[in-house]
Specification:
The protein has nine helices and eleven strands. The strands form three sheets. The protein has a five-stranded antiparallel β-sheet, covered by helices on one side. The protein has a four-stranded antiparallel β-sheet with strand order 3-4-5-10. Strands 8-9 form a two-stranded parallel sheet. The longest helix has 16 residues. The protein is elongated, with a radius of gyration of 22 Å.
Length: 289
């Protein structure tokens, strides 16, 4: 068994590291691996830190081999990845700023609670897209289309609707949250996910307005919500947990999040900030300082 395991690991290593990568050969190579080992053993090899201190999945992301990544994913048992494997993947997504692949994997494996609520409400998937505007100056936009926005806020059990995205070499979380239930006001809040490096951020959340009055001469203006450290006592954002996975004392002049109250419109039945289907259209304009 040890010889078979070593041979399989060597074959997988070649798939993710060999310079002469051939996407068309991935399936046949993995089928040979599956024939040599039990399914659980193969899944174990794919998710362990056994190739230069990282998983095979990590190297498939780092070396831009999506065909290998998704082929590996099919051979891993159903259910969420282990915490060690998940952390390894997050680091790879941050290094490569690969939001597209992260979003595809997240929708299938990680955003379980959000997916369950959408399923119960018959709600289509949300759309979160990252667009790099000016790479030298670290400017990027995050475009969000959040379906059944108000209905889902009323239905969530933890008083928040949260999303994650990768941009600018960092992994971010963004949420709409009822931070002070006593005042009933919802807030927009942003921070860094675990394993991310600290960052200095200047951002504006733009929420598109939709005219509900037929024949209106000018379109209503978008709502602008600043999310910035400028003018505060803080210099940078820190990840919400340490890389080791436990809460820690924040360094001086650092904070875990930036938040801003949205106002009273969020739960108004006839608000102009959702469209006629109840979808919120928003854009997060972000600059790393």
């Amino acid at each position: 068994m040890k010889q078979k395991r070593a041979a399989v690991l060597s074959r997988i290593r070649d798939i993710v590291l060999a310079p002469n990568f051939n996407p068309s050969s991935v399936t046949s190579n993995l089928n040979a691996c599956a024939a040599a080992l039990p399914a659980a053993e193969l899944a174990n090899i794919l998710t362990q830190l056994n190739i230069e201190g990282h998983t095979a999945l990590y190297w498939a992301i780092m070396n831009n081999r999506p065909q290998a990544f998704w082929a590996f994913d099919k051979f891993i048992s159903a259910g969420p990845y282990s915490s060690v494997c998940t952390s390894d993947l997050r680091i790879a997504f941050m290094i490569t700023s690969n939001h597209a692949m992260f979003a595809q994997l997240s929708s299938a494996n990680w955003a379980i609670e959000n997916r369950r609520l959408r399923s119960c409400l018959g709600c289509p998937p949300d759309k979160i897209r990252v667009h790099t505007c000016d790479e030298p100056t670290n400017q990027f936009n995050v475009v969000m289309r959040i379906r059944m926005f108000q209905k889902r806020l009323r239905a969530v059990t933890e008083n928040n609707l949260q999303y994650e995205f990768v941009a600018g070499g960092h992994m971010w979380w963004f949420r709409f949250a009822l931070l002070k239930p006593s005042n009933g006001l919802w807030s927009a809040e942003i921070g860094l996910c675990q394993d991310s490096y600290p960052a200095r951020l200047d951002a504006v959340l733009l929420i598109e307005a939709h005219s509900r009055k037929p024949g209106r001469a000018t379109p209503p203006e978008a709502l602008k919500i600043p999310l910035s450290l400028t003018g505060t006592k803080f210099l940078a954002l820190a990840p919400w947990r340490s890389p080791e996975g436990f809460d820690y004392v924040l360094p001086p002049k650092m904070t875990r999040s930036i938040s801003k109250e949205l106002g009273n419109w969020v739960m108004h039945n006839k608000t102009e900030y959702v469209d006629h289907e109840g979808t919120l259209h928003a854009k997060l304009e972000m600059t790393l300082l």
